[in-house]
Amino acid sequence: MQTPIQISVIICTHNPRPDYLRRVLEALKAQTLPKEQWELLVIDNASKEPLAPAFDLPWHPRARHIRENELGLTPARLRGILESEGECLLFVDDDNVIFPDYLAECSRIAKGWPLLGVWGGQQFPEFEGGEPEEAWKREFWTSTLKRDVWSNNYDNNTVAIGAGLCIRRQVARKYAELARGDPLRLALDRKASTLNSCGDFDMAFVSCDLGFGTGRFVSLKLNHLMPMHRVSDDYLVRLNEGFGYSQVILAALRGIAPCQPCRVDRIVNFYKRLRLPSLRRRMEIAFETGRARAIAELNRRSQQASK
């Protein structure tokens, strides 16, 4: 009889950088948790060139490549949930180099914290070409902890972001059931060139819906490989627009109607932005553009449903 699988490691990837993905796999190969206790699923999300021939996985007895042709991070995650067997699922991005004890710590937390449904840890950016000069860009991509935090409320501070997120199978199944039938949920997170997000928050909040909590732990650490374009002004502006869109959609999924500023507030905000530095002004405008796009989509869907 095979040893029961404790953790299913799921890598969702679309046209990955080969050097990054190799480092991700090497970090998994070095895990202290015995390989018999976890499986590895590489979800090839409509990559231009199939990944299986280039990334052979003979070092792991329970590893396999799975092709998912529907483009988007959410469809890839749903395929991973469907194909996995572990009692806990760990989502590792194709640019996440997890520390050697990451899986062992995930297993320990799963056993020691039965009331948590979703958890994660700390992230340390590794910038290609050296750290950016702007301190705020370094801080933007850094997620550290001084102590463990947890909550059974819808608390953003205890939600693990997608990189290195661990979720119990019961929660993952419920999330998948909701997401498959909901175009709004499917619109959360990356797809092609769009930079929407918050699928990780949606999973965490489903955990709370089911009576579980969320948490982040100091012992869970990973290095986040950061290509140069991710610290460019244009990329961060686009990312902020994605945040604006996704936050409105996430709130709508929980029954919270978006609050639109009145005419006076819009005028005041306009003149406040004129005094901001150029990049910060662009980012705030992008955030509001994303919000407006989400509100327009919600209104359109509401009108269609009422016909």
Kindly describe this structure:
Strands 1, 2, 3, 4, 5, 6, 7, 8 and 9 form a nine-stranded mixed sheet that branches. β1 (7-13), α1 and β2 form a beta-alpha-beta unit. The protein is 42% helix and 20% strand. By secondary structure, the protein is of the alpha/beta class. The protein has ten helices and nine strands. The mean pLDDT is 92. It has two domains: 7-228, Alpha-Beta Complex (Spore Coat Polysaccharide Biosynthesis Protein SpsA, Chain A); 234-306, no CATH class. The N and C termini lie far apart (57 Å).
Question: Which features characterize this protein?
Answer:
307 residues; alpha/beta; Spore Coat Polysaccharide Biosynthesis Protein SpsA, Chain A; nine-stranded mixed β-sheet; 10 helices; 9 strands; 20% strand
Order of helices and strands: EHEEHEEHEHEEHHHEHHH
Count of the separate structural domains = 2
CATH topology label of the largest domain: Spore Coat Polysaccharide Biosynthesis Protein SpsA, Chain A
CATH superfamily of the largest domain: Spore Coat Polysaccharide Biosynthesis Protein SpsA, Chain A
What summary fits the major beta sheet?
Answer: 9 strands, mixed
What integer value in Å does the Rg equal?
A: 20 Å
CATH top level assignment of the largest domain: Alpha Beta
Q: Architecture of the largest domain, CATH level 2?
A: Alpha-Beta Complex
Oligomer: single chain
Q: What's this model, at a glance?
A:
The protein is of the alpha/beta class. It folds into two domains: 7-228, Spore Coat Polysaccharide Biosynthesis Protein SpsA, Chain A; 234-306, no CATH class. It has helices at 18-29, 73-83, 102-112, 135-140, 169-180, 183-187, 199-209, 233-253, 263-274, 278-306; strands at residues 7-13, 38-45, 63-68, 88-91, 96-98, 116-127, 149-151, 165-168, 213-226.
